[in-house]
Amino acid sequence: MAAGKLQVLGMTADFGKNEASSPLFERFLRVELDVDGYLDARVDEFPMITFRQDQSVPMTSATPIYVTNDYAFSAEPRPEGCALSVSMNELQLMVDEDDRRVVFVEGYCPHFGWKARTLVTPIAHQTGLIVAFDEEPVPGVSRRVSGEARWSTFADPHSGWICIGEEASPQAASAVEFARNTIAVLDRQGRLSSLWLRPANLPKGLVESLAAG
To answer: Is the Cβ–Cβ distance between 167 and 158 less than 8 Å?
Structure first.
């Protein structure tokens, strides 16, 4: 971490230089009150998981669906295996344990928390998406892609696309459609910026309620 100053609420705090800091870590500002009521600001580091597209690996045929009774996404056909995963909120990107390819998305994502938006779908390359773990993953234990941060969910009732994360793509971003109607947007460091899903079976009533705002 480079040396510098951190300003919070008009106060400036120094943070030191750490030569051992790894580029595979993200830094998050955490501000708390200590036991004496004084402001305690520090920079926490979380392991960073990165992704890359691999044109030698084809996109998968798994198509996202939304299971209304479970308030969750799943996929059809649902591939077998995929004991590894990375997650944001309660959604999981399921990963093949052999080649570390992201295969499909599933997990809890209640529609009553979605925000209606007119979304501009990113233009994506239809190819494989490979995940690089910061340390050896454990089967059955999902790794978070962005520390403790919660990701917002946006839904376009006209196009049917759902965006989890940043609705506007970052500068120099790349987009990968690694499964049918399933897009990952990556920033220039290969970090996941947003996940886009277009389930074929969004209930008509849900679409109408989103359109009504």
So the answer is: no
